[in-house]
């Protein structure tokens, strides 16, 4: 059962998401919050698998809440998915950098919301990879000077290849096909990369790849 926490300052939005998710046999909405401070407190109390959180809320916003959750080792298994009204939001890159798994546009289709929750719970891929890749590239392009990350030196040549493809928004299956590997081997490489880099999930691997200069916006087309 996937445990979900909803955080949004609009009650109707929370009610709408709860209604969509409540019909799924493998999803349980365990709580709600109306601002970031409540969301962090509820995450610590309820330990959800996925936190669907609006980025713009009064008081503590979603960005700061995501940062607090990412900084708490006890909440390492909580996957934060940021909700936004626009698919290009200045806050989103910061949220991913702070440890959010990905983002969803609020008017997403019900089927996409359900799938996104399942994907986030697996920690298996970014939410809406093509959109997220475009957004990360947009804001990573503003990084003035790439900063080499010392942990990158711990990666093997193959792991660097895999990391570059992760940064391109490819799934494990797509990476396997590109490098002529089995999907299981591709997944193992990704897991080892996250461990070596101390990354919570794939989104942080992507951000690091851009910020370190390993890849540049639009490199994969």
From TrEMBL:
Record InterPro entries: CheY-like_superfamily, NreC/VraR/RcsB-like_REC, Sig_transdc_resp-reg_C-effctor, Sig_transdc_resp-reg_receiver, Tscrpt_reg_LuxR_C, WalR-like
Domain HTH luxR-type: from-to ranges: 148-213
Domain of life of the native organism: Bacteria
BP terms from Gene Ontology: phosphorelay signal transduction system; regulation of DNA-templated transcription
4-aspartylphosphate modifications at: 54
Phosphoprotein keyword on record: yes
Gene3D superfamilies hit by this protein: 3.40.50.2300
Name the UniProt record assigns to this protein: Response regulator transcription factor
Source organism of this protein record: Yinghuangia soli
């Amino acid at each position: 059962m996937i445990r979900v926490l909803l955080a949004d300052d609009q009650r109707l939005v929370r009610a709408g998401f709860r209604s969509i998710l409540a019909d799924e046999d493998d999803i349980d909405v365990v709580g709600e919050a109306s601002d970031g401070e409540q969301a962090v407190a509820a995450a610590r109390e309820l330990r959800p698998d996925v936190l669907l959180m609006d980025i713009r809320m009064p008081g503590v916003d979603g960005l700061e809440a995501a940062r607090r959750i990412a900084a708490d080792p006890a909440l390492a298994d909580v996957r934060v998915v940021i909700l936004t009204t626009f698919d290009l939001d200045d806050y989103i890159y910061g949220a991913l950098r702070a440890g959010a798994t990905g983002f969803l546009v609020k008017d997403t289709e019900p089927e996409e919301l359900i799938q996104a929750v399942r994907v986030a719970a697996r920690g298996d891929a970014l939410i809406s990879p093509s959109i997220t890749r475009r957004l990360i590239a947009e804001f990573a392009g503003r990084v003035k000077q790439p900063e080499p990350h010392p942990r990158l030196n711990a990666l093997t040549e193959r792991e660097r290849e895999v990391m570059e493809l992760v940064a391109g928004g490819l799934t494990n299956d797509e990476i396997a096909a590109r490098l002529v590997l089995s999907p299981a081997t591709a997944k193992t490489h990704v897991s080892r990369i996250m461990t070596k880099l101390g990354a919570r999930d794939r989104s942080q691997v992507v951000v690091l790849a851009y910020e370190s200069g390993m890849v540049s916006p639009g490199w994969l087309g």
